[in-house]
Amino acid sequence: MWRFLAQRLLTAVPTLIIIATLAFALLHATPGGPFDSAKRIPPEIERSIEAQYHLDEPLWRQYLRYMGNLARGDLGPSYQYRDTSVNELIRAGLPVDATVGTCALLLALLLGSLFGIVAALRRDTSWDYVPMLFASLGIALPAFVVGPLLILVFAVTLHWLPSGDWRAGSVRYLILPVVALALPYTAYIARMVRGAALEVLASPFIRTARAKGLPLGTVILRHALRPILSPVVSFIGPAFAGVLTGSIIIESVFGLPGIGRYFLTGAINRDYTLVVGITVLYGALIIVCNLLADLCYAWLDPRVRLRS
Amino acid sequence: MSDAPLLAIRDLTVSYPAGAGAGAGAVRVVDGVSLDLAPGEFLGIVGESGSGKTQLLLSLLGLNAPGAELTGSARYRGAELIGAPERALARVRGARIGIIFQDPMTALNPYLTIGAQLTEAVRHHHRIGRREARRRALELLDAVHVPEPRERFAQHPHELSGGMRQRIVIAMTLLCEPDIVLADEPTTALDVTVQAQILALLRDLRERTRAALILVTHDLGVIAEIADRVAVMYAGRIVEQASAERLFAHASHPYTEGLRRSIVDVDGSLPVRLEGIPGNPPDPAALPPGCAFAPRCPYAFERCRIERPPLEEAAPGHTRACFHPGPLGERAP
């Protein structure tokens, strides 16, 4: 297993180099620069700013400088947020996204599995139809509809919860964004689990377990749960990387200081280092989460061998 | 049989709602079956695939696929099984009536160790600890000739051969010391050489336990090896029933005769020509009006195609459902 891990992490290096190179090239290919504005800046000031950020150097040099810093884990200074490095921005924003995202995915996994299994067990009854109707709605409704709706009901009308903002460590500020973010994941997992459960529950080894006279709970938890959750694991891996890097919509609806918004503002302002930095981070997280998913998969299914 | 029956099946019918055609009614896969099983008796049920043998076994434990409708009665020691609540059935399943399924490749859970699957039922039903269950399981694995039982315990099903898995399944079923073992084609999915070993193992049951056995198979040769009494099923009904000796000596239903002609005698010489039964078993959704076997029967006459023959006593302890009057002679031209 350690060989497998080492090999997978080694192959991640060229992948990340390619991701960084492509992101760098694409951003620099877009017209305009980080310090363009409607107002004309005196040429000498512009030159001094460019010199400070090495933008006056030829592109290949800028690239090598960036990659060299990246190798040391330095994502460079942000062009837009003056006097702040990209590392600092990520360090401030990532815990917010990580908290909201982890809570949302755990909630989605719990509720989605529960609804999916109940729907499969009570197939073609209202226990099946009602959750699956909500699952379809959950997939169809975009976060910019669900988020304001939640705020309208639970913050504006009922005054139960704050409508937005973020206090580190406060659960009250966590609930609405977590619910809004979890909804589509819950819906997706519920549908996926229902399908897997229908297949697993009809399999011969479940019939064997029932023929042993085991209680239904034991049959489900001991015999059916692992095969049912196997397909979910491969979905959760990349999904986790996705929620860790934040959702632009959830962050702006609830006013969260996460890093998702940097993707957008950074791209608009051609904040080269910020966008490339977050892209590389996202790539690295995807690689790590997929690796974790594979390990999880091997742990769930004894037939899976980790071979490099 | 002087003993009170351990299991008394009366007029048992299993039907499934007809698939596509609306208002097509239900498809009867088991149709009015009555059987008795005495304590310790080995009963063979023989028939082609699709004759309802497996559904009959499953209905005794309430394990038919969702949508199955069961009518009639099956009493185990006087307690009704058909339509019994899940909770009551769960106390019978595994503990009183165990079942060995056809395909050991899929019958075991690929996610769990052999040890966990072996011991969970006995721990549940007999309320014994992990250590005691393990001790009994190891003992039984040894008895069913599983080499190095201790190592098997930690293994997963995919690490074992088919024959080994079927031994595990048999041990799993016997561990709770059930009164009745149902075996659904336990040798069909296995290599021929392994088949003989598994059959020998089932035959040994008689010495090891007092369990009765219902063995379902399409292979009359298997039945001949092990059964006391044989019931022949065709299209969901029992068409002939007799002691094994009598059935092999005096098969009086044309279908039984056809099955008998189509087996290869392992001990003696090959029959001059190995014969099959022409045609295919009927679709249970579209049974002919008279005797279901009539379209394939060399002896069938007018009445067979109109009226369904009832199961009647042909000789003491020998019943059959056929209008043909006498002993079956030469085939009709």
Task: Describe the protein in words.
The complex is a heterodimer of chains A (about 300) and B (about 325). Chain A is mostly helical. Chain A contains twelve helices and no strands. The longest helix of chain A has about 35 residues. The radius of gyration of chain A is 24 Å and the shape is globular. The mean pLDDT of chain A is about 90. Chain B has about 325 residues and is of the alpha/beta class. Chain B has a domain of about 210 residues: Rossmann fold. An eight-stranded mixed beta sheet of chain B has the order 6-7-8-3-9-10-12-11, sandwiched between helices. A four-stranded antiparallel beta sheet of chain B has the order 2-1-4-5. In chain B, a hairpin with an 8-residue loop joins strand 1 and strand 2. In chain B, helix 4 crosses helix 5 and helix 4 runs parallel beside helix 7. Chain B is globular, with a radius of gyration of 21 Å. The mean pLDDT of chain B is about 85. Classes of the chains: A mainly alpha (about 300), B alpha/beta (about 325). Chains A and B meet through helix 8 and helix 9 of A and helix 2 and helix 4 of B.
